[in-house]
Design goal:
The chain is α+β, with helices and mostly antiparallel strands. The protein is 23% helix and 24% strand. Strands 1, 2, 3, 4, 5 and 6 form a six-stranded mixed beta sheet that branches.
Length: 184
């Protein structure tokens, strides 16, 4: 794989115990999947790949998410909100079923949300990373998801540094960061 390649696997639509965390009122309109440590491993690995795209784009030293976090006791509350589209996939036709289709997810963006214990302010939610595929940016995905994110994770701290586009988005939605420091 070349440095500039982006790959997005087709992921099986599977049972996800964390999706129930979007309350019933929101579930019908939530534009994302809620993924946590009990979500399918293939999903966690796809999110890890997006975290590496974020690392590369923002020139960070490390990726902000790893599929192995599912083993970390202190990280059990953390979630990733995943933007996705559903694609019908055709399987190899059989005489019994000449048009065998199933649905698959393609993840094209993610928002990492962590529970942080701060030294100088009360514990709170934090958003350390957010990445969208370049072709899916500036299409309203984050604007649509923002009210759901705030309802599920009240008053989150957006960790710096952020991209100029994210900075413009935060100004557009009137976000005021409540913490003076950059990292927990």
């Amino acid at each position: 794989m070349s440095y500039y390649d982006l790959k997005f696997p087709f992921l099986r639509v599977a049972k996800n115990p964390h999706q129930r965390e979007v309350n019933c009122a929101q579930a019908h309109g939530a534009p994302f999947l809620v993924v946590g440590p009990e979500s399918p491993l293939s999903w966690l690995k796809a999110i890890e790949e997006m975290a590496y795209y974020f690392k590369r784009e923002m020139k960070f030293d490390f990726a902000p998410f790893s599929a192995d976090e599912r083993f970390g006791h202190k990280l059990r509350r953390d979630r990733v909100l995943v933007f996705h589209q559903t694609e019908p996939l055709s399987h190899k036709p059989t005489p019994r079923n000449p048009k065998d289709f199933t649905n698959a997810y393609i993840f094209f963006g993610a928002i990492g949300v962590r529970w942080c214990q701060w030294e100088d302010v009360p514990a709170s939610w934090s958003v350390p990373w957010l990445w969208l595929h370049p072709y899916k940016r500036r299409q309203g995905h984050l604007t649509t998801a923002w009210p759901f994110l705030l309802k599920m994770f009240p008053n989150p701290h957006i960790e710096r540094p952020v991209s100029p586009a994210m900075d413009a988005f935060l100004k557009k939605v009137g976000y005021a960061n409540g913490h003076e420091h950059d990292t927990p």
